[in-house]
Amino acid sequence: MRRWRVRAFAGAHRFIGVHVLHAWRACAALALCCAMQHTLAADLKLYAAAGVKAPLERIARDFEASGGGHVTLVFDTAGGAEERFLADRGASALVTSAVRVHAAQDAGRLRDGATAVIGATVGGLAVPRGAVKPDISDARHLRDALLAAPRIALSDPARGATVGRHFLGVIEALGIRDAVMKKVVLAPNGVETMRLVEEGRADLGVTQISEILQADPACLLGPFAAPYDLATDYALWMPADAPAAMRAFAALATSPAERARLRADGLRPPE
């Protein structure tokens, strides 16, 4: 009887041992899988111009929903985004005007990286919802509208705002710089420019049409009249040694499916 008990115990020991081994292997496999998923789903941090805010937010949501990892987006002017990206060693990528990316590469501020054009934004003007929309269809009417507006919201050119800097050239060419600048209310970026317009603290807003549409399509007045129209290519730059998650995000951002959706955000897809 004692021998039977010993054998029974030994058999039970082997039985339990086999199951413990299987359980250990399962846990190890799960841990390895989680580790691989964590590697591919690394957290990303992008600094971007506010002109591409709407499409980048949508792309980030789609990326996170697919298990690609968490994406932090920090928006600023084109110049502000570049400065903040360069100051943050933990940043994953920069999205700003293609002109700025090329200039930074030529100056050595951006090195050993890859660049992909996302799309083009168009500069334009906005009015508060329900306000009378003045004619800006040609240079003369644009000049009259700018002179008639009591308050004009503008993204700060000194902070590298693309449309803000362009606007200074427009009013200079129209010969109304001094008269207009007396009425300008500066905003840190296009998002805040539109906030001033929506809240009725500005009668005209000058920013990217993409920023106008993402705030309120009813506020759109229209693009700058020729020859003062402005289209700006925006590009994504990431270091050559970017992690797999960042490369996957860039592939999604430049995919045919995403580019086909850009027009709804007020951007032109790359040609």
Automatic annotation (TrEMBL):
The keyword Signal applies. The keyword Cell membrane does not apply. InterPro entries: ModA/WtpA (IPR050682). GO terms for molecular function: molybdate ion binding. This is Substrate-binding domain-containing protein. Residues 1-41 form the signal peptide. GO terms for biological process: molybdate ion transport. Keywords: Signal. It comes from the Bacteria. Pfam families: SBP_bac_11. It comes from Noviherbaspirillum pedocola.
